[in-house]
Design a protein that fits this description.
By secondary structure, the protein is mainly alpha-helical. The protein has helices at about 15, 25-55, 70-95, 100-130, 130-135, 145-170, 180-200, 210-225, 225-230, 250-270; strands spanning about 55-60, 65, 270-275. A three-stranded antiparallel sheet has the order 2-1-3, covered by helices on one side.
Length: about 280
């Protein structure tokens, strides 16, 4: 005798398909993206620009570039390098159709760090009259107007950065808007791991502890704060365009991150003298 037919119980597909992300690997990828963003800002943007512009030597650390030569171009170089890099990473992310989710997350995080760093400096310098863009507008006629312009441009561009990064994490890392827990995980881990890395390296800089509070802490914590709340501003209708895979454990990413984080903190953190 055949058993009676029963109605199968429905399974919540969103729960069934929700991907899981390995925290150590997520942290490792975030640290590598943070190191790259920092090197682009301080190394390529400030140091390389100063050396090409005429300075003979200078001290490069994770929080600043110091030399006997200064100019508006050198001051603006860090921001410009980050903004240029963000364009490159965005293009690479959009075209990484067959790349692994780990590689796509690295491109997304690198895009976010560079874009937030670039746009955040406009607002930071405009409000505080300190750091890179305060040096760029120093001595200009109608200084108050330039500061106001920095604030306006900074607010508008930073909001645009938040929208772009939010769209990127949903579309190309394939994290649906409905998965709020996963969105928090993939934004909070990069934020706090980067903050710890940069502040730790900054503590070793030979130019004074004040740079830790002014640059490593305020600039980093403020510039990347969009990661903490961007999930609330992801436009409705934004859907994944890639396969929703989780970030699996990768000892390669973890090993490389550890191998580069140690010299970043203990070598570059203490400072490297560069000569022309």
């Amino acid at each position: 005798m055949r058993p009676p037919l029963t109605t199968p119980r429905r399974v919540n597909s969103s729960v069934f398909l929700q991907a899981r992300d390995d925290a150590p690997t997520t942290c490792a990828i975030s640290l590598l993206a943070a190191i790259l963003s920092n090197l682009l800002h301080e190394g390529l943007g400030h140091a390389a620009t100063a050396l090409l512009a005429g300075t003979k030597s200078g001290l490069l650390t994770t929080v600043a570039w110091s030399s006997d030569f200064d100019s508006r171009l050198v001051a603006a170089g860090g921001t410009l390098a980050n903004l240029a890099a963000s364009i490159v990473f965005w293009i690479a992310l959009r075209n990484a159709k067959s790349a692994s989710v780990r590689w796509r997350f690295f491109l997304l995080t690198s895009f976010a760090f560079n874009l937030f760093e670039g746009t955040g400096y406009f607002l930071f310098s405009g409000v505080t009259n300190f750091d890179d863009w305060a040096q760029v507008i120093a001595g200009l006629h109608a200084h108050w107007l330039w500061r106001a312009l920095l604030v306006i441009v900074g607010m508008a561009s930073y909001l645009g950065a938040v929208l772009a990064v939010g769209i990127g994490i949903v579309r190309y890392v394939a994290v649906p808007r409905s998965e709020s827990r996963r969105l928090r995980r993939l934004t909070f881990i990069p934020y706090f791991s980067t903050l710890i890395l940069v502040c730790t390296a900054g503590l070793l800089n030979p130019m004074g502890i004040q740079l830790v509070w002014q640059s490593a802490l305020l600039a980093t914590a403020g510039a990347k704060s969009g990661l903490l709340w961007l999930r609330y501003y992801i436009p409705k209708g934004t859907v994944p365009r890639r396969r929703p895979d989780g970030i699996e454990r990768s000892y390669v990413w973890i090993t490389v991150a550890l191998a580069l984080s140690l010299p970043f903190v203990f070598v570059l953190g203490r400072g490297i003298v560069l000569h022309r």
